[in-house]
Amino acid sequence: MNTYQSIEKFLIQFLQDEVQKAGFSKVVLGISGGVDSAVVAILAHKAFNDNLLGIMLPASTSSRASLEHASELCEKFGIKVEKIPVGPLVDTYFHDKKDASKLRIGNFSARMRMAVLYDISARENALVLGTGNKSEILLGYGTIFGDLACAINPIGELYKTEIFEFARYLGVPDSILTKAPSADLWEDQSDEGEFGFSYAQIDKVLYAHIEEGKDKEALLASGYEKELVEMALERIASNLFKRKLPTIADLSAVK
Fold it and tell me: For the purposes of burial, counting CB atoms within 10 Å of the CB of 220, is it exposed (0-12), middle (13-18) or buried (19 or more)?
């Protein structure tokens, strides 16, 4: 059996089991026009059919192409979808904050998207599905309480390069597969542009470090670029807090 066929079957069952165990029958999902949400949308549609509701959540800085690609995906696979712009929410907050950086605005936009998704989940009595892949999670390339927030994440153990291969297997449109990965937090933003390296390069280092247990010295001895290794390891360490539940003080010693 094809590896991705096995993964597809496993993840469809995983979604069905986890949603049922939580006492729900419906799910909602933000569909951005990117490859990660496309993969999750297809899996969720196969798992829940019309009990999946996709939500497009454009901000003022979102590219028109992202909306077009999200619409193309939903049309191809028959996914129910609503469009709820978050631009007015973001613009209202920042209208008198002219010194706000692109990063602040982008992170706020991500959190507004998730706030809307959770409100829709309450309206629909549904669970919110996540779309973060393993590469992004390890590198901290996501907004805490924004796109990292969810009830269930089916793709968090797949590296970005695996996501692209899986997406191709699932039949994700070429318009999504061939464009540069982007969180779409601001105009012309791209993941690889911010990292300074491609996911193909990054994932090799992540795999060697996480799956094979190679430390910095071993990675360098294996021939990986020093700048690439240092970038990856620094991001893994500095973004650990995003991968953990909030730390609660242990009072057992003083109570």
Answer: middle
Q: Could you say which architecture CATH assigns to the domain 3-179?
A: 3-Layer(aba) Sandwich (3.40)
DSSP 3-state of 215 = coil
Q: Dihedral of the CA atoms 96, 100, 104, 110 (nearest 10)?
A: 40
How does pLDDT run across 93-150, given as a tens digit for each residue? 999 999 999 889 999 999 999 999 999 999 999 999 999 999 999 999 999 999 999 9
Task: Give 1's pLDDT tier (boundaries 50, 70, 90).
Answer: very low
- Smallest CA-to-CA distance from 208 within 227, 232, 231 is with 232
- In the chain, domain spans: 3-179, 196-243
Q: Is 249 exposed, middle or buried (0-12, 13-18, 19+ CB in 10 A)?
A: exposed
144 near 242, Cβ under 8 Å? yes
Strand extents, DSSP E, the chain: 27-30, 52-56, 81-83, 127-128
Q: By the 8 A CB rule, do 87 and 106 touch?
A: no
Spatial neighbors of 177 by CB under 8 A, at least 6 apart, are 35, 164, 167, 168
